[in-house]
Design a protein that fits this description.
126 residues; alpha/beta; five-stranded mixed sheet; globular
Length: 126
């Protein structure tokens, strides 16, 4: 991928995130506005492209690492009030299961996550 292709892709991602409202504005306790989007995958170009697109829209990218435990994932997602996670297909089932498990808990923390952006084609109904 050339520099121009990468730049154009990041710009398209930025416009898509904004057009679909994937990173709504939230306010912290001090009244400052923030926008957050989670990104989860192993190192790959799509991770970088989403991060660049987020920077273009003044969105803070929140890295969700595979090594985070379930409680840490729930805490981070709840604290940032993110609604969207961009991720690789191999991690979709893991996040969906975490959301299903969360729905049965007394204190639900993943209820705001309503959008998953898959890096690859071929997402199955499963």
């Amino acid at each position: 991928m050339s520099f121009r292709e990468a730049r154009d892709t990041a710009v398209n991602i930025a416009h898509g995130v904004e057009a679909f409202g994937l990173a709504p504005t939230v306010q912290d306790d001090e009244g400052k506005d923030w926008k957050f989007m989670g990104i989860q995958s192993k190192n790959r170009k799509e991770w970088c492209l989403f991060n660049l697109g987020n920077m273009r829209q003044k969105i803070t990218s929140v890295a969700l690492y595979d090594t985070l435990g379930k409680d840490a994932m729930r805490y981070i997602i709840n604290q940032t009030e993110m609604t969207t996670v961009a991720l690789s297909n191999d991690l979709i089932n893991k996040l969906c299961q975490l959301k299903i498990d969360d729905s049965t808990m007394d204190e639900q923390r993943l209820h705001r996550v309503v959008n998953l952006v898959a890096f690859e084609d071929g997402v199955t109904d499963e």
